[in-house]
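Margin note from the TA: students keep mixing up input and output lines. Inputs are the sequences; the output is the structure of the whole complex. Example:
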Amino acid sequence: MSDSNSTVRWTLNGTEVENEAGMTIMEAAKVHGVDIPQFCYHPGLSIAGNCRICMVESNRSPKPVISCSERIAEGLEIKTQSEVAVDARNSVMEFQLINHPLDCPVCDKAGECVLQDHSYEHGPDRSRFVEDKNIRHTKELGPTIDIWGNRCIVCTRCVRFCDEISGTGELCVVERGDRSVVDVFPGVPIDNSLAGNTVDICPVGALISSDFKYEARVWNMDKTSSVCGGCSRGCNVEVETLDGFVKRLTPRENLDVNDWWMCDHGRYGWRHLYADSRLEGAQHDGQAVSPTGTSGALHQLLSSSSSTAFLVDPFMTCEELHLVRSIANSLGGSTIAGWLPAAGTEENFPGGFKISADKHPNRKGAEHVLGGDLFTTSADQLKSALSNGSIDTLVAFVGGDGFEGAGGEWNDLISKAGKRIVFATQQGSWCEGADLVIPATAPLEKEGVWVNEDDRAQRTRSCRSLTSNHFPSELVVLQELQVHMEQRNRPLSAAGIFRELSEASDAFSGHSHSSLGDSGSPLSQRPAAMSSEGGQS
Amino acid sequence: MANHEETPEEKPETATTVPREKAAFGMPLIKGLANTLSHILRNEPNTIHYPAEKRTPFPGYRGEHRLKRDELGREKCVACFLCSTACPAHCIEIVAEEAPWGDREKRPRLFNIDMMRCIYCGMCEEACPCDAIELTPVYNIPSRSRGEKIYNKEKLLSL
């Protein structure tokens, strides 16, 4: 026996290995670099064990065992590549493909389909099935999801997702045997806020997002690891673009934030990037300004100003806010305040997933960079100063999806400033009559760091490309302004600005873009031990 | 290890292991020269008067593309993008749309081939799972403008 109860010695493909007790064979094998194929198993869902593709040979059983639910035990000998195991896998693959239509050319899952991959790796190259294939229903399951029943392999991942993670239980398996297929109850469509995840976890192309249907082939798209800007949760997402245009968003695994999921508000909430009202070029008193001349015009307006106020938004990255702070400091006598978008409703799901009521991604970060009273006391002061007319020049950032501007009260107040410089994503009343309107980057187009509601700093990366957007980002415009003001020799990347920020601010000290990596890190968890007071609030 | 104990003598005789003195290169050389000489002495023209006289291309000749139609006259293409994926010259542009027919889900809304960029390799034809695109033996394909050399779906279906 092993020295402690917590570890188990077992044999994997002839090599003796050691793992924590209680792990399944599949999990433990993965630790040792042995991947066992899987359809119904998903790390975020309960174990169903109905697809049988993960069968391996065991010394404790006359028949192969399923590695997704079988636990490791002392003295267990598992072979994943023996004749028994390979035969079992081949047979399961052949059975899975009996009723599968093999319509990969028109299936949107092709290219990221688990059935395709396993068929290529483990399956026989031809079918012995000469009978007619079963026909199952093709229909709408909900406003965003369609089912192609013929493709379904009844792994029940989607059914378990609706039972366990979203807790809504709309999906069920109807019929028996080879006629089984996923369906909804009559009159109860699948329309919960997490429904889109069922499409992601479907190992085949049975569940298809009607939003993405026939939009692109998955292998042609470029992926950017970014962060959703829809709420202060900061779900990690993969932005998939075709020729520079966003086609869909998929969740990226991060067990500290969003597990494997994301909500439909974020998933389908990127159309504002290509709205008709989107600002594409800078305008100075109604005249178009070239992208290279934007910062010059901005400098001209700011240098002739006696008192300047900055109105920032919680969609700006910490880097942009840091630049605003240093510009405001060097102008002297300037004030900074922030506006917040209207709060939404918080949604909590039994699976632990949460949609935050704060519909902005970086309030915490803004408070760390610019002070804790940015959205409260400072905002009230700026509001009264604007209504008094005591603000000469106002630089307003109206980001986010931008359809509502900065919110009702602010939109009116912005127009009361003597001179107005507006960074905006969308055209609207907040741009009308402004001296200088500069196009702003929306969430998913920003390069930098956002701090979510749990004080976790995460990098958001830009999905912009030369074909989709031509204007320079705020990060570039603000730095060019600093070059004009002789504060900076040349613009830096977002990582360079973040380094400046981490040197200037206690809250961010010790962190860097590379240390944050793809999955981010809590601000309190820094490499070197720093004082716990943190932030400037 | 058993494989490493194999001696050089046990190796089967292959083209590369034939000793130089055994290699018969004399006779083939003479045969080749005789063939050349016979063609010179025959004194027949080996060229044709091209525009007036046209050569029939060999089977498998890869000329201009066309899109095929099925028995109902609809395009066979289902917009799977495999031809554009296989294309080494990236000259095929496809935009898919939902097909209006019950028996098929997808069809191309746009199907453009940039014939100036195409290298006529035939990979699109090989990749096509629906036998919808093929290279015809048409080799006489000049045009008066660059725009004409970008073939759209209608043009490709009419060929």
